[in-house]
DNA sequence: CCAGACGTTGTT
DNA sequence: GTCTGG
DNA sequence: CCAGACGTTGTT
DNA sequence: GTCTGG
């Protein structure tokens, strides 16, 4: 799955990679957790790519209780087409979440004790960026409060991630960004081929300190390789 | 038909 | 144990 | 994902 | 809003 990630690339790099119209000024983040505001790339009505912020945790339009958002942080690519909670967003409101890397926890049973060892998974190529496939939805509370929300699609783990965890985020090929964001594509089955696990050669993984467990710890040292 | 859920992950 | 918040 | 709270009443 | 279960 994808329940924690990082985005520390300079705004200039993010802009280049995602071909954004506007300047970006972002603080680097090493520990992005659900429930917080995250950067999303969308296509506006003029076909231009725009960056925005959404709360991570999708709240469907029809929800009366926004706390459902804390459960809808991921959508399974294999079943997303059929799920009422994601159906509308998949048709009309796809987005991409820029990332410098993501965390997965490996369950390690050692002398009878169960430990969860966090790993950081990043592009194998230095300075590269990930674009996670995402869905967005705008929720309006009964009092009229507007909340932009999003979630991240997940898929089966590829060969590199599998020893750590059996799920991983959908990492789009840059050549697929346009198609994924195109609001004209309303036939969800046409999007299927984009949602495969990315090639393992594009990734590298290494263990990091359990300091990352604490969602409020956002220090750059979280990226430091740790021994297991 | 209406009522009630609508999700993923991991663990048992 | 289970839900909420970050 | 993990961490941390999880409740009501009455009083300040 | 839309699907599932009764």
UniProtKB/TrEMBL annotation:
Residues covered by region (Disordered): 206-228
Stretches of the chain forming a coiled coil according to its record: none
EC number(s) stated in the UniProt entry for this protein: 3.4.-.-
Pfam families: SRAP (PF02586)
GO BP annotation list: protein-DNA covalent cross-linking repair; proteolysis
Keyword list, A-Z: Covalent protein-DNA linkage, DNA damage, DNA-binding, Hydrolase, Lyase, Protease
GO molecular function: lyase activity; peptidase activity; single-stranded DNA binding
InterPro entries, A to Z: SRAP, SRAP-like
Family: Belongs to the SOS response-associated peptidase family.
Record protein name field: Abasic site processing protein
